[in-house]
TrEMBL record:
This is Putative alcohol dehydrogenase. Pfam families: ADH_N, ADH_zinc_N_2. It comes from the Eukaryota. GO terms for molecular function: oxidoreductase activity, acting on the CH-CH group of donors, NAD or NADP as acceptor. Residues 19-358 form the Enoyl reductase (ER) domain. Keywords: Oxidoreductase. Transmembrane segments: none annotated. It comes from Hyaloscypha hepaticicola. InterPro entries: ADH-like_N (IPR013154), AOR-like (IPR044626), ER (IPR020843), GroES-like_sf (IPR011032), NAD(P)-bd_dom_sf (IPR036291).
Amino acid sequence: MATSSIPETMRSLCTRRFGPPSRWEIADLPTPKITRGDEVLVRVHAAAINPTDVGGAMGRYWPAFSVPLPFKIGYDLAGTVAAIGNEVTKVKVGDEVFCCLPFKDREKYGTGSVSEYALITETLVISKPKNLNFVEAASIPLVALTAVQMFDKVPGGVDGKTVFVPAGLSGVGSVAAQMAKNAYGAGKVITTVSTTKLSMVDDVLGRGVVDETIDYTKTNPAKTIPQNSVDVMIDSIGASFSSLALLKRGGMIVACAGPPPSGRNVRNISTEVPFLIEKILDFLDAITRWWVGRYQVKFDSVLMNPNGSELERIKDWVEEGKIKPVVGRVLKFANLEGIKEECTRIMKGKGGVGKVVINVITD
């Protein structure tokens, strides 16, 4: 095993019992150890916070998943390779990488990107985009992978089509809007933001990415967008049902929020899901599809599963300038109160612009 100097313990943002961010702490926990030839230990430089991190720390995934305590927080990270197993060939010690930690094998890998070290398999580690620093790179994996997997659900793609991406300055929304136009060739992209963010859309996403921006605080998008005019809706905020009339016959909604995921999707990211819960989720998914189908619209949902080849595609788009990171507040790892404050905002669904990123180390 190739390695650099690695301590026995590390600092990690965690919670010892499920609950809101006010219960979180920075604790000294054992540094993960490589036990397989295909594993990579990453020295984390920066890590991003997503709503799913807050939900996990609050225990929302139990009993669908076995969640060990203390629960280490975070999935997204960028850093340098600290050690590799003897079968690893893709990266070497010292390489700059970024990745999204897996939901599977939670006991060993699981969460924990807001830690000084994180363990992951070689297949999920990708070289950091050359044009991004660690903070920018850490903001991308989970939301971009979610967006890619949503677009990949659309038969025939979105080239030349009208795509509705609500909340265009949110985590998933900001990446999905850029992907729709710059990577997948959408003919028209429509989004929604609040009044104070109207002037930010072109600056943040790039001029020409969004063709129509609606101030949802003043106008109901369902009454502003013509009915039967949208080909595809990429829904990351749970607006699928209220937007059904906007979709053309034969159009499609892909959601990562709102209706519960199917049991099949949940089992795809974890084999720990109890059989009864899987079947209940499949039943609820069937009801959703039936309801949406009454409008002659197709529906599918995505529960993001980390994928190295997809992240490699995202890296290429970033280096080509097709996708740029949207970073909001950047916090120091030692600023626990600031972290709690921002994560409480995320928990309450109060919108900011861009991802919250934590600088784990600055050297």
